[in-house]
Amino acid sequence: MDLQNKVALITGAKRIGSVVADELAKRGVGVALSYVRSRQEAELTVARVRASGVRGELFAADLTSPDACRFLVSRTAETFGRLDILIHMASVYTARPFDDLTDADWSAVVDVDLRAAFLCAQAAVPHMRTQGGGRIINFSDWVAKSGRPRYRGFLPSYVAKSGVIALTEALALELAADNILVNAIAPGPIVAPVGTSDDDYRAVEEATPLGHWGGEVEIARAVLALLDNDFITGETIRVDGGRHLR
Fold first, then answer.
1. pTM to 2 decimals?
2. Residues 229, 177: contact at Cβ < 8 Å?
3. CA separation (Å) from 175 to 4, 71, 85, 121?
4. Which of 126, 142, 178, 212 could form a disulfide with 240 if both were Cys (CB 3.0 to 4.6 A apart)?
């Protein structure tokens, strides 16, 4: 895909999403960002996007709401006049023991990680068809891609992220005739969660064959690689420094 003058919608404007937006803007892509609570970080990202010489817009959207998912996509397409790329990064990741899980805990994760990925894609497809094709990139994670749970306390996350892989494969088949390529990225140790202790940080490094955390730019590079390629669809690519090998 020639990225110049294309338009991308990124759900999730924090940390990794911010760097992905920066790299897309450098390639001439107009960027729409959605956020729920991280408005200040999202505003800074949009300011950098605009400083790159392309259009950047910011939209508040609670993706637990189906109507909000659809409105976000339609508002983006209306504002920019087109939509070529959907990158669904929004995610809820909270540890909760199995015996303490509630209906609300389940929905909080599955509705954002999986259902919103489907709803945003469904809303985006007509706009992509108008342009003769497009790209959808979903986000799973390295544990789900490995095909077995490794950590207790993250049951909804594992189920949702595994579902993202299945959704990606099914969408790729459904949309291939429309020249809409659908793939997913499964990050591993990219950036440490807030509050990670020094000991835990080093333990992850030791468990990763390449011996270090990846950093946000590695995800941005993977996104660009998928956008540049015109013959990869239905794949989930791990970006984990070999973490799944141990």
1. 0.96
2. no
3. 23, 22, 14, 11
4. 142
148: number of Cβ within 10 Å: 8
Give the helix/strand (H/E) hosting 8. Answer: strand 7-11
Look at residues 118, 126, 125, 111 and name the one whose alpha carbon lies nearest to residue 165.
118
Check the CA dihedral 138-140-146-147 and report its sign.
negative
Catalytic residue among 35, 151, 158, 201: 151
Q: What is the C-alpha separation between 97 and 94, in angstroms, rounded?
A: 10
Both tokens assigned to 29:
């892509």
7-245: in CATH 3.40.50.720: yes
The confidence score (pLDDT) of residue 161 equals 98
Other beta carbons within 10 angstroms of residue 237's beta carbon come to 18
Q: What pLDDT does 48 receive?
A: 97
Rg, C-alpha atoms of the chain = 17
Name 16's Cβ contacts closer than 8 Å, sequence gap at least 6: 89, 187, 190, 191, 216, 219, 220
Helix (H) or strand (E) holding 56: strand 56-60
pLDDT digits (tens, 9 = 90+) for 47-98: 999 999 999 999 999 999 999 999 999 999 999 999 999 999 999 988 999 9
* Nearest-angstrom CA–CA distance, 58 and 80: 12
Active site (annotated) includes residue 35: no
Cα four-point dihedral sign 61, 185, 123, 2: positive
